[in-house]
């Protein structure tokens, strides 16, 4: 398979960047070819990974080749491993959000193209990121011309935190700065999707829909369950629309944005679990998420998202928790028992990162002991995200 090389002659990081960037291509991406670029945003725990997986399966059923690009502030991302475990081609952009590592985003797409040129790229940005239209959508449209066919930008609405933020109710552990990021994510969207409707009473779904239509007039609002597939057809129809999108002009206070991101303690930890007998993988995951979330609730510290993946020989299981008010759930049951596992834990919590590390490590050891297992920690990254510094920020929409 021929290689795809991207050479960007960047003309600087000025927000009013002159479009002098050049693109040299070799291999499969010819002048008249374009890759459909579908990016799905949403706050931490909104259900982006589950939706991306369902979209990937849909496009594959249409005979299309699909590549997925995940994104995180650190390495050891549960989402990447979860999607790969389902058989998808996945590239990862670690260490910064798409907007702050735009070149790595295009390089990762190029690497997926070199392996087996995709018809569709599904991109999942960091859930604490906003201003993605100005920093990702418009740069792809304007700097790469017809090389990418950019789909409408959709944003998933997370009901557990979204309802409280949109009603202006006090957030447990979440500051106005974090709520600012959530609101800005909705403001820039071409359309909004209320996810997890299967878990909500119909009256609550109607109330949340009415609030969104009132506060974001003119923005289409869909209702969907990525888990069950209810409403999924409407999502596909919107993503399949053709045209020029990302036209909403949006002011962003990067000082407030930076404060909101820095509120969250960010932890990615990889570890090995072993036992002389077999352990129930799914129960281990649920116990682990429950132990961590229970300790955080007693602090108290609001959880934005907490998830863990367990991997063994032919075994994959994922459990997650999307807020302090929600129960832990198996998003990808393994139905397996085994004596040895590799586990990755991702936590995004409004708490000091060092305290978060202590809680996670103590919880892991306590759960392992209850299951008669031993633990070896391989790597733990724990920090607060730094100030966002986008590679490009194009304020004028494509005409």
How would the blueprint of this fold be written?
Elements: E1 35-42, H1 48-61, E2 66-71, H2 78-85, E3 89-93, H3 102-116, E4 120-124, H4 132-143, E5 148-150, E6 154-157, H5 159-166, H6 176-187, E7 191-194, H7 202-215, E8 221-223, H8 232-239, H9 254-262, E9 265-280, H10 281-298, E10 303-312, E11 315-321, E12 329-332, E13 337-349, H11 353-370, E14 374-383
Parallel strand pairs: 1-4, 1-5, 1-6, 2-3, 2-4, 6-7, 7-8
Antiparallel strand pairs: 9-13, 9-14, 10-11, 10-13, 11-12
Helix pairs in contact: 6-9, 10-11
Detailed description of the structure:
With 399 residues, the protein is of the alpha/beta class. The protein has helices at 48-61, 78-85, 102-116, 132-143, 159-166, 176-187, 202-215, 232-239, 254-262, 281-298, 353-370; strands at 35-42, 66-71, 89-93, 120-124, 148-150, 154-157, 191-194, 221-223, 265-280, 303-312, 315-321, 329-332, 337-349, 374-383. It has two domains: 35-260, Rossmann fold, CATH 3.40.50.300; 265-383, Alpha-Beta Plaits, CATH 3.30.70. It has eleven helices and 14 strands. The protein is globular, with a radius of gyration of 21 Å.
In short:
The protein has 399 residues and is of the alpha/beta class. It is 34% helix and 25% strand.
